[in-house]
Amino acid sequence: MKRIAKLGVLMMAVAMIFSLAACSSGSTTTSKSDTKKYVIATDTTFKPFEYENDKGERVGIDIDLLAAIAKDQGFEYELKAVGFDAALGEVTSGQSDAMIAGMSITDARKATFDFSDPYFDSGVVMAVSASNTTVKSYADLSGQKVAVKNGTEGATFAESVKAQYGFETVSFPDSANMYEDVKAGNSVALFEDYPVIGDAIASGVPLKMVGDMQAGNSYGFAVKKGQNAELLEMFNTGLANLKANGEYQKILDTYIKK
């Protein structure tokens, strides 16, 4: 009987040890799962804000800025490069928590999204094929096709003046195909955000800017209206910190051609 009793006490002690170990392990797992990891959508080709370099790495002003802000504020995220239109849908449907994609802050979009403080001020320019000698002003676009990229300031501006100048707009999901359309002569010109077309031309795309730059809206980080206020606040705080310590300007200087 004594041996049985001792054996029972031993088994109970072992069971308690395993129980404590299991509780300890469960606590650690819970702690890790409590860490919020945000899903953030972005565009695929909007150089110099987001694009793939020669090594297949996702880089650009938006990408580096997001990484620096996340590091400054101590949050984790998963980046989803899905294209601009898809990114809008990702956030509005709740599949992504936010988006950063050279997205202009407009009154119309404020009905659906909450925006961060502006992180870049853009502008719009017209560009034509480098060999084009006939288009020198908007008046020369009459009866012609003009290429634009969905969701950009360039597209918004083109739509606002096309009736006045009598041209037709042709929309594209990305900048690369829009450029090819103009190079091929299918469209006589395009309207694009200034830093984007400036980078393309500096990188060897055979286009040239024509006319003056039009004022555009600022870019902002966006979340679905009424949601992820904490993430938005962290972005704003991180952005302010990066501007104060010089890291923000370093990121711009890395990508914007002068």
Automatic annotation (TrEMBL):
Q: Which residues form the Solute-binding protein family 3/N-terminal domain?
A: 37-258
Answer whether the UniProt record assigns the keyword Signal to this protein: yes
Report the residue ranges that make up the Ionotropic glutamate receptor C-terminal domain in this protein. 37-258
The region annotated as signal peptide is 1-21
- Which UniProt keywords are given for this protein, alphabetically ordered? Signal
Q: Which InterPro entries match?
A: Iontro_rcpt_C, Solute-binding_3/MltF_N
Xref: PROSITE patterns: PROKAR_LIPOPROTEIN
The molecule here is called Transporter substrate-binding domain-containing protein
Q: Which organism is it from?
A: Acetobacterium fimetarium
